[in-house]
Design a protein that fits this description.
Length: about 45
Amino acid sequence: MTRSIFILNRIEDPTCSQVATRLGISDGSVQKHLSKALLHVTG
């Protein structure tokens, strides 16, 4: 899920709300997954 959200956000460039709607999850969940992905990429 984290990988999918990261790819959607970086390649297709929708807002967190658009990603959340598309995947049927909350905005907060999208933000949590993006934070997790960014820590992995930069860490």
